[in-house]
Write a structure and sequence with these properties.
Number of helices: 20
Radius of gyration: 21 Å
Structural class: mainly alpha
Helix content: over 70%
CATH topology: Amino acid/polyamine transporter I
Distance between the termini: 56 Å
Number of domains: 1
Order of helices and strands: EHHHHHHHHHHHHHEHHHHHHH
Shape: globular
């Protein structure tokens, strides 16, 4: 590897960040690990947003630990797909949106851009609802007031203008640690029976072949793999400036692959902790119909005893929403720049996305009150599920294209696994959609 020039002071939004983190040749293993660590962490945020909380809480309350295997399998699928997105960005020097624009007609690109934008707004809707609920639970603010407060996160994005990308990664790390520590403390208070937890890692045919738990397992899958995360990952790995050699690319893929696996493993543990907490508190005490985050918060205190568990729950939820806000802004920039060759300042991008997410949140809560939270969260996950095939197909096709990827093209095993996941996730999400449409 080459010794590269000193990093520029770049804003945290693309495309200015490309190649701004130096990779030092001849550095120690530890220093190289630190240099490459970060992109996977930003991506992992999408796997622990309020939408994931909703499905994990419902699964835990209804079936205890029996659907824990769905969290594990969904996370393994996410690791493979994010690894493909990372590899695509490193090898080609372009992100998934840019490559799609070069390979498709304008009408197709406009359609794919629209699908990606819908997924980003749907994810932001979940963040609005999660943030509003956190403000409501922690500060006693009415839900509509909490929704209005979430609009102020644009100020956070304004405050990050001009910051280096590594500083953003450090902020995200702090928020992820906040979420993780809040659940470590909750599990310590709850004290689940760990042999039963371990048993939940193995699929139970008797349970999974029943209609309702099968649909819930599909819901966990649909809430786990986020479409915009694949665009995001293929872009932000390019913050590391590499020498233009196959050796440099191979080493980067190795280190960034490790970064991806470790980060998504942390996200998996947090999702598992949410499900375990719900199983240990609600299912174990006969509360088998907790399908709402707000309801979960209100039940924690009387069951666990004291107010600490509920406070930790609210803090973790707030950190989750703020984390996803930052990465959602970057993903929006990547998609707009890639498909439309259009760049606007980050704070404007955040304002547009949040404004579109606030509309259904305000209308739903104004008309239905607190019950709208659960319904809107489910809706956001269904919308995300619908967008997923439009990202998986080009990603799998491009990473298997030898003309594009050269010697880094997918091998037979990865090809079978990637296309198998595409078919499985597409089928699973269609089943989930049909179930929701039919009111199942």
């Amino acid at each position: 590897m080459y010794i590269l020039p000193k990093s520029a002071t770049a804003p945290f939004c693309p495309p200015e960040v490309k190649g701004t983190v130096p990779v030092l040749g001849g550095a120690s293993l530890w220093k190289r690990l630190r240099t490459f660590a970060g992109p996977g962490l930003l991506v992992s945020v999408g796997y622990m947003d309020p939408g994931n909380w909703a499905t994990d809480i419902e699964a835990g309350s209804k079936y205890g630990y029996q659907l824990l295997f769905a969290v594990l399998l969904s996370s393994l699928a996410a690791m493979l797909l994010q690894w493909l997105a990372m590899k695509l960005g490193i090898v080609t020097g372009k992100d998934l949106a840019q490559l799609s624009r070069g390979r498709n007609s304008r009408p197709v690109n406009l359609f794919l851009w629209a699908m990606a934008e819908i997924s980003i707004v749907a994810c932001d809707l979940a963040e609005v609802l999660g943030g509003a609920l956190a403000f409501h639970l922690l500060l006693g603010i009415p839900l509509l007031g909490g929704v209005a407060l979430t609009a102020l996160d644009t100020l956070i994005v304004l405050g990050l203008q001009g910051k280096k990308f590594r500083q953003l990664e450090a902020i995200v790390l702090g928020l992820v640690l906040t979420i993780g520590l809040s659940y470590v403390a909750q599990l310590w208070l709850i004290k689940p029976y760990w042999p039963d937890v371990a048993q939940g890692l193995l699929p139970d045919p008797h349970t999974i072949l029943q209609r309702e738990p099968l649909y819930l397992a599909i819901g966990i899958l649909g809430a786990t793999v986020m479409p915009h995360n694949l665009y995001l990952h293929s872009s932000i790995v390019q913050t590391r400036r590499l020498a233009p050699t196959d050796e440099a690319k191979r080493e980067a893929i190795g280190f960034l692959g490790l970064d991806t696996i470790v980060s998504l493993l942390a996200a998996m543990l947090i999702n598992a902790a949410i499900l375990i907490a719900a199983g240990g508190v609600f299912h174990a005490h006969g509360y088998n119909d907790v399908a709402d985050i707000g309801q979960a918060y209100h039940l924690l205190d009387p069951i666990v005893g004291g107010s600490l568990a509920g406070i930790l729950f609210g803090i973790g939820l707030l950190a989750s929403g703020q984390n996803s806000t930052l990465t959602g802004t970057i993903a929006g920039q990547v998609v707009m720049e890639g498909y439309l060759d259009l760049f606007i300042p980050c704070w404007q991008r955040r304002l547009i996305t949040r404004g579109l997410a606030l509309i259904p949140a305000f209308i739903g809560i104004a008309l239905l009150g607190e019950p709208a939270l659960g319904k809107l969260l489910v809706l956001s996950q269904v919308v995300l599920s619908l967008q997923l095939p439009f990202v998986l197909f080009p990603l799998t096709r491009m990473t298997g294209d030898k003309n594009l990827m050269g010697k880094f093209a997918n091998g037979p095993l990865v090809t079978v696994g990637a296309w198998g996941l595409f078919l499985l996730i597409t089928t699973a999400n269609l089943v989930l959609l049909v179930d929701v449409v039919n009111g199942g």
